[in-house]
């Protein structure tokens, strides 16, 4: 059946005459409906007889009535695709059970029982990668959020904490290594070449933190001694050939352990910490107690195969998962609406860690770029939700940039208002009060409030209101003073038409352009719809520097001249504000040029001159480190620019943005060539200087490619050929991949492929470089790559490397024909039956249609409707598509 041509019925659901009616829609789960579970499960025993095609699981649960819940004789155990093979209560085969859909209900007469249930699963058929699945001949698990129910019947909710003992057995040759949470307590040999291991985790945990791994793995082993003297064995488990690429991950782990002791006073609490790298994984990594499971992308690195960005990503994700041991595991979430309790806080913790490792300013700019590139669009679109959502149909859809990144920003604001020392008292209070519990966001806020001595009453709105606040700022000079007039509005979002003003902490300074004097920084909190703040002794030409350090996740509109922005871009003492000034200069120009009637020629060239002179100042500033210079040189993303325009035309934005790059590249050609030469002379290393040189080197090529393409092609080819590291190689190949009329493009792409054939992570880069390229034929390239023998729908990294890169490529995805939208819709429909979680992640780019000019808007919407009308959709994709259209 050609789904594209299926006529829709009145309610939008195509139904064939005699097909059984599909369940209308998955149920909506509401935060306010929370009730505690009727039973406690103090201990859980699991016994696994492992096999790739058949694994038998015996789950034995000691249960007792929960005195804090409404009593019920029914023990409701979640299942997903499971059938109970045997059910026993207190050692006797039981018939007091029934299935209610996927849920197993066991009726229990007394206050305490032991329930034993046998299930059988086929890990090799598990393409969703949730529950127990096979990857490259090994077995591993992913249980967050609701994957445990695909392994065993269980109250699969985060507020049911249990102490687990696990026994697993399997063929020794196939699975020489058997790992689980906690400590390895016993091992032995069985019949027919099998062996077994027993593991015990002394820390009660929810089922989503359960993990098991069985496979042929080797470890990079080391140890860390905690400050109270506990010696912890550390292992990073990988496939045999990957061992040489694990040193950076191990160093990152040890630094994380030390940092969490120093900065948050948190020590590790077991004698063993295992990390396993798997190549088939839906997300980045998972914080299972004592047994973190990682996407190989966030473990493996050496200079030949990983970029500086990859190294930083590994350091950050290793830290993130390790930090979860306290913010997530020791204190977990009461329900999934509280997800930001662990994720927002843990992201903040990993950001602060990376700031300490790599330098605060650059890391802050990078984090803000992600927030504005991903979270702001989410917050202004149909999928907007508060950091503590009120409802969902499929929790996997709520692992969002809002929960993670905005969640971190909200906690960061508390820290900014309290100051780091008092904030630490607040987090200590939180850890003391709630250790061992399944807590709520409210518990966290209350702890910070009490511990840090802040009044967070109104601040709690940040947890309940979605949408990015908009601040209008006007600096009105008044003799020797200046009055800063601020207004805030929080835009309406789905289900939240009216908003209240929120407390917004803004770091502000007023500089003087006339004398070049820099004003002192002040922290003001705007907590009303409108307010004014007076600055004394401001000088003759006061210039506003606001939201310094990006102290609040808001968007600022300020009346400011280009001359003032050029001044700030060259002189502001706050590195973020300096970055921001240049971004504003570029964004302001591109918005004007690519919307409405556009700009007259003279206005356009005047703005281009301002931008070029600011850019020249960035290139020439000897006091700048190259790591920072590289940040300042980066153009605002197309998505971020489009966000500022009603009915945006991606084609116009793209053309104007490229034209501006070309202008800079041509006007500053010799400076850029000189910068490239200077940077190329610095030998490879991991010092800030060497890393910075690699960053500016490729940035120089980016502008030269636009403004002096022939020269750039030669330089990029030379950089590629001389590269002794992946950063230089990938950077030059990225530039070449976007160029036409150069033989260097095809030659180097082929060389790259042949050089790294068989290394999945690097071949992912090869796909992504082409899918995100500026090349005019990118649509055709992506279609061809989808037919490449190395492309597979079964591996999420590979799917993302081709299609996420493409969906983020403005001139491919937004091709005026609508072909890009169709390709992403095709992908969603093909992937949904295999891996709904990953399929649903491709819906948000299609949900942006309300923001686009009419032609593309209609084409995009058509594709969403085509998906909505498909015969059978997963809960994941159904929810995302219906919200996007809704
Ligand atoms: N909890 C993981 C993290 O943030 C993310 C994750 C969610 C991984 C769901 C897998 C599945 O670190
Ligand atoms: Zn996390």
TrEMBL record:
Residues 1-29 are annotated as: Disordered. Transmembrane segments: none annotated. One of its GO terms (molecular function) is zinc ion binding. It catalyses: Release of an N-terminal amino acid, Xaa-|-Yaa- from a peptide, amide or arylamide. Xaa is preferably Ala, but may be most amino acids including Pro (slow action). When a terminal hydrophobic residue is followed by a prolyl residue, the two may be released as an intact Xaa-Pro dipeptide. CDD domains: M1_APN (cd09600). Residues 249-459 form the Peptidase M1 membrane alanine aminopeptidase domain. Belongs to the peptidase M1 family. Gene3D superfamilies: 2.60.40.1840, 3.30.2010.30, Neutral Protease Domain 2 (1.10.390.10), Peptidase M1, alanyl aminopeptidase, C-terminal domain (1.25.50.10), tricorn interacting facor f3 domain (2.60.40.1730). This is Aminopeptidase N. Residues 467-558 form the Peptidase M1 alanyl aminopeptidase Ig-like fold domain. Keywords: Aminopeptidase, Hydrolase, Metal-binding, Metalloprotease, Protease, Zinc. Signal peptide: none annotated. The lineage of its organism: Bacteria, Pseudomonadati, Pseudomonadota, Alphaproteobacteria, Sphingomonadales. Its EC number is 3.4.11.2. InterPro entries: Aminopeptidase_N-like_N, Aminopeptidase_N-like_N_sf, PepN_Ig-like_sf, Peptidase_M1, Peptidase_M1_dom, Peptidase_M1_pepN, Peptidase_M1_pepN_C, Peptidase_M1_pepN_C_sf. It comes from the Bacteria. NCBIfam families: pepN_proteo (TIGR02414). Its cofactor is Zn(2+). One of its GO terms (biological process) is proteolysis. It is an enzyme of class 3 (hydrolase). Residues 72-209 form the Aminopeptidase N-like N-terminal domain. Residues 563-885 form the Peptidase M1 alanyl aminopeptidase C-terminal domain.
């Amino acid at each position: 059946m050609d789904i594209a041509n299926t006529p829709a019925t009145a309610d939008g659901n195509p139904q064939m005459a005699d097909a059984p009616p599909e369940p209308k829609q998955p149920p909506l789960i509401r935060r306010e409906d929370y009730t505690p579970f009727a039973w406690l499960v103090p201990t859980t025993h699991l016994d696994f007889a492992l096999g790739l095609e058949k694994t038998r699981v015996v789950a034995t649960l000691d249960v007792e009535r929960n005195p804090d819940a409404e009593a019920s004789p029914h023990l409701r155990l979640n299942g997903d695709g499971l059938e109970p093979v045997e059910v026993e209560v207190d050692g006797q085969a039981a018939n007091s059970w029934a299935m209610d859909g996927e849920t197993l209900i066991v009726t229990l007469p007394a206050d305490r029982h032991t329930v034993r249930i046998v299930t059988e699963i086929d890990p090799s058929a598990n393409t969703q990668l949730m529950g127990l699945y096979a990857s490259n001949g090994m077995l591993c698990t992913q249980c967050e959020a609701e994957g445990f129910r695909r392994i065993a019947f269980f109250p699969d909710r985060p507020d049911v904490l249990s102490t687990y003992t696990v026994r697993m057995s399997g063929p020794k040759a196939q699975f020489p290594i058997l790992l689980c949470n906690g400590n390895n307590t016993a091992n032995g040999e069985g019949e027919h070449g099998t062996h077994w291991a027993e593991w015990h985790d002394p820390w009660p945990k929810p089922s989503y933190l359960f993990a098991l791994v069985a496979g042929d793995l080797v470890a990079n082993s080391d140890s860390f001694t905690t400050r109270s003297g506990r010696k912890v064995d550390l292992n990073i488990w990988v496939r045999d050939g990957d061992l040489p690429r694990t040193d950076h991950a191990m160093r990152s782990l040890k630094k994380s352990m030390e940092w969490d002791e120093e900065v948050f006073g948190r020590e590790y609490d077991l004698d063993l910490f295992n990390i396993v790298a798997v190549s088939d994984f839906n997300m980045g990594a998972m914080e299972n107690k004592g047994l973190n499971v990682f996407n190989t992308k966030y473990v493996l690195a050496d200079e030949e195969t990983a970029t500086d960005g990859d190294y930083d990503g590994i350091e950050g994700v290793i830290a993130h998962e390790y930090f979860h041991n306290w913010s997530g595991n020791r204190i977990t979430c009461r329900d999934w609406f509280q997800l930001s309790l662990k994720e927002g806080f843990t992201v903040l913790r990993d950001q602060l860690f990376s700031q300490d490792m790599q330098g605060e300013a650059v890391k802050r700019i990078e984090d803000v770029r992600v927030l504005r590139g991903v979270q702001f669009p989410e917050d202004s679109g149909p999928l907007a939700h508060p950091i503590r959502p009120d409802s969902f149909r499929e929790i996997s859809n709520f692992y969002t940039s809002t929960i993670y990144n905005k969640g971190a920003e909200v906690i960061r604001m508390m820290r900014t208002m309290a100051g780091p020392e008092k904030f630490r008292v607040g987090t200590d209070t939180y850890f003391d009060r709630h250790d061992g519990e399944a807590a709520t966001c409210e518990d966290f806020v209350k702890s910070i409030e009490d511990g840090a001595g802040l009044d967070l009453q109104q601040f709690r709105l940040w947890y309940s209101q979605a949408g990015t606040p908009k601040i209008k700022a006007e600096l009105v000079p008044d003799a020797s003073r200046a009055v800063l007039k601020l207004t805030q509005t929080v835009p309406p979002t789905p289900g939240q038409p009216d908003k209240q003003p929120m407390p917004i902490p803004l770091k502000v300074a007023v500089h003087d352009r006339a004398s070049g004097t820099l004003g002192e920084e002040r922290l003001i909190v705007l907590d009303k719809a409108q307010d004014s703040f007076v600055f004394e002794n401001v000088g003759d030409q006061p210039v506003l520097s606001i939201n310094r350090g990006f102290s609040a996740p808001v968007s600022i509109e300020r009346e400011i001249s280009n001359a003032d922005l050029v001044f700030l871009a060259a002189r502001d003492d706050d590195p973020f504000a300096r970055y921001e000034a240049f971004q504003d200069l570029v964004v302001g120009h591109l918005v004007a040029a690519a919307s409405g009637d556009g700009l007259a020629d003279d206005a356009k060239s005047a703005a281009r001159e301002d931008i070029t002179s600011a850019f020249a100042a960035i290139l020439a500033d000897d006091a700048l480190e190259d790591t920072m210079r590289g940040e300042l040189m980066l153009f605002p993303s197309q998505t971020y620019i489009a966000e500022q325009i009603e009915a945006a035309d991606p084609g116009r934005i793209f053309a104007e943005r490229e034209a501006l790059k070309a202008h800079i590249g041509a006007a500053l050609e010799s400076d850029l060539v000189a910068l490239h030469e200077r940077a190329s002379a610095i030998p490879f290393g991991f010092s800030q200087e060497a890393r910075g040189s690699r960053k500016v080197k490729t940035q120089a090529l980016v502008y030269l490619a636009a403004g002096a393409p022939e020269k750039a092609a030669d330089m990029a080819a030379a950089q590629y050929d001389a590269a002794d590291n992946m950063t230089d190689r990938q950077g030059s190949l990225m530039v070449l991949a976007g160029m036409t009329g150069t033989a260097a493009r095809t030659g180097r792409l082929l060389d790259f492929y042949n050089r790294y054939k068989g290394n999945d992570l690097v071949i992912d880069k090869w796909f992504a470089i082409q899918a995100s390229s500026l090349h005019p034929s990118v649509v055709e390239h992506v279609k061809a790559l989808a037919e490449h023998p190395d492309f597979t729908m079964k591996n999420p990294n590979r799917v993302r490397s081709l299609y996420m890169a493409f969906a983020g490529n403005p001139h491919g995805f937004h091709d005026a024909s609508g072909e890009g939208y169709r390709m992403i819709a095709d992908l969603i429909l093909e992937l949904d039956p295999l891996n709904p979680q990953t399929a649903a992640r491709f819906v948000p780019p299609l949900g942006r249609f309300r923001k686009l000019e009419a032609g593309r808007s209609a084409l995009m919407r058509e594709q969403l409707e085509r998906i909505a009308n498909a015969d059978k959709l997963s809960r994941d994709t159904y929810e995302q598509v219906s919200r996007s259209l809704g």
